[in-house]
Amino acid sequence: MSRFSELGNDLFSGKKSYPIVHRRRFWYLLSGVLIALSLVGLLGLGLNFGIEFRGGTELRVSQVQDLDSYEQRASAVMDEVSPGGTTGVTRIGDSTVRVQTGELSNEDAESARLGLAEEFDVPDEDVTSSFVGPSWGETVTQRALIALAVFLALVTLVLTFYFQTWKMAAAAMVALLHDVIFTIGVYALVGIEVSPASVIGFLTILGYSIYDTIVVFDKVRENTEHAMETKRQTFAEAANLAVNQTLVRSINTSVVALLPVAVILLVGLTIIGPGTLVDLSWALFIGIAVGTFSSIFIATPLLVTMRQGELGIRKHDAQVTKRRARQEARGARAAEPDDVVGGEQLDGEEGDDTEAQTAAVGAPTPARQATGGQPSQGRQLHPYTQRGPRNQPKRKRRS
């Protein structure tokens, strides 16, 4: 743990840095592959909608003592009532069997209820039957889409006014859509049932994803504004430093959020069984994980790509490059040896250099020509220059 804290300090101070922004093409490629797989699952396999969306009849058998081969036994009973109509048989908890099928008439539903009670040797009152119409699922879907549209519009306006640039809002929205598409794609590829609880989970991960992206963008704005003033870093370097400075924080936040969700999901799959808790946990677990990835590896690199074409950013990067070139040139001149003059080393032995210096000292100058060409023994004084110490006290005349 201490090493992780030390890594966080090194990343924040800039002592250690990962080239996340500079390798943005790799992250774009990886994200493109993930989105392509998600679309293949979404368009090819489709989503496994729950009974709340497609409509049908659900029967639950409680207080079951013998759960051996419960799937085959329940399916056999339902095939006698409605051949080929059974869509799913699952166990909920330790003693409940859930059967979902298409729409049944009242007579067929009652026959299925009595047949399940006889098969699992439970009283008739321990078998319940309920019908869910597809209109309810359609209403939930429409309300969810409306909520999603309002959420995206409000978030776009808030981010635009907060960061004072629409490009940050656009990058955040792209990362947000990336999270939603990938999460839904995983549902399609794995075959996880989509229920109203799953829709609630989708809307929840939108808030988490945008929150994590805003935290990173706030640091990006701070670093880039400082870089524009000091001319010490390019825009991409300042943004990369911001991502590194928030990297450990994002990982810690995600781990803390994923641990309880993972525990709930594990308990739900192994002990409780399918239900609202499991459906919500699936959406949160996938969404939080992919949201952390997008806020670090997609949002900020995309922002840098969008803003590098601006005239002000190009001028700033050019000024930083020129300044570094001048500093490197000064460093190279300071590192040159003492016997290099004007970039060329003097030829000849040390004695020749001494004679040349002596000849240069004895060369006639205008001051020497005034004294017959003899070198002066000191600094030549102007004829009116005061000789002797200055500011001497005036002598008083004797009366």
Helix-strand sequence: HHEHEHEEHEHHEHHHHEEHH
| Global morphology | elongated
Discrete helix count: 13
**CATH C-level category of the largest domain:** Mainly Alpha
Q: Spatial order of the strands in the main sheet?
A: 3-4-2-5
Named at the architecture level, the CATH assignment of the largest domain is Up-down Bundle
Low-confidence stretches: 341-379
Work out the count of structural domains. 2
CATH fold call of the largest domain: Multidrug efflux transporter AcrB transmembrane fold
Task: Count the beta strands.
Answer: 8
**First-residue to last-residue Cα separation:** 96 Å
CATH superfamily of the largest domain, by name, is Multidrug efflux transporter AcrB transmembrane domain
Radius of gyration: 40 Å
**Share of helical residues:** 55-70%
List keywords for this structure.
399 residues; alpha+beta; Multidrug efflux transporter AcrB transmembrane fold; Alpha-Beta Plaits; 2 domains; four-stranded antiparallel sheet; two-stranded parallel sheet; 13 helices; 8% strand
Could you give a quick summary of the protein structure above?
The chain is α+β, with helices and mostly antiparallel strands and 399 residues long. 67% of the residues lie in helices and 8% in strands.
